Amino acid sequence: MAVGLSTYAFFWEWSDRNPTPITLEAMLRRTAALGATVFQICDYPPVESMTADQLSGIRRLADDLGLTLEVGTRGVRPEHLLRYLDIAEALQARLLRSMLQRGPDTPSLQESIETLTALVPELERRDVTLGLETYEQVPTSDLRAVIEAVGSPRVGVCLDPGNTVAALESPRDVVRTCADVVVNLHVKDFRFSRRDGWVGFTFAGAPLGEGLLDYAAMVDLLRPDERGINQIIEHWVPWQGDAATTVALEREWTEHNLTYLGVTK
Fold first, then answer.
1. pTM
2. Burial class (CB in 10 A: 0-12, 13-18, 19+), 258
3. Residues 133, 170: contact at Cβ < 8 Å?
4. Sequence-distant (≥ 6) Cβ neighbours of residue 250 within 8 angstroms
5. 105 to each of 41, 43, 99, 100, 225, how far by Cα in Å?
6. Distance CA 32, CA 28 (A)
7. Cα–Cα distance between 208 and 243 in angstroms, integer?
8. What confidence tens digit (pLDDT) does each residue in 83-94 have?
9. Which residues face 192 on adjacent strands?
């Protein structure tokens, strides 16, 4: 098991709301400087248009920094996953995270099973494991059913229990449902807060240990050290009104979470 950061830990810093967005290369350098050893390039559209030379340059930089790379996208259409397997291979990434749905493009469960079953030999050939993320648009029981039907250790769950709250699924139940098929773990805490006037709630991120995620119970059940499951830090940092304040808070959460996970002191 290793602890790493995702592009989602830099969500606001690389977004177009930041006047000086951080580059991918700078994200890798900061990840290494903070003591993490994995970086997941997740839902980062620029990677799709990178040339072979540019991808090789990212891989060489990661090697120089001592970082393992992982890749993340959305969707399970065959042509899309094959494109991302090419990217993963160029980056020497052994973990590809995806989701069953990509925007309005939602294959049926049976279509997903057939696509992923046909993909297994390619995953094996390239030594890549596909982690399908838990999230609110697909019931966790359905996601589990797809993985069981595919029946390969090359296809498992990328566990993010906070995502499923929007579908009224308990994070604890989601962890228990997926525990034995988890291949990647997104670590972010979350909490509800009352809106102005006490009318409704906001569900947003929180620093690890300050929200509703029962991290200790999750790790006890998953045994990531024993099973070699990487823990990837993400954030849901609420916008703070301006880029400078928001980016500063995002960086603060990253350092806090790395300390919480024992990477830094």
1. 0.96
2. buried
3. no
4. 9, 10, 11, 12, 13, 235, 237
5. 22, 16, 11, 9, 36
6. 6
7. 22
8. 999 999 999 999
9. 203
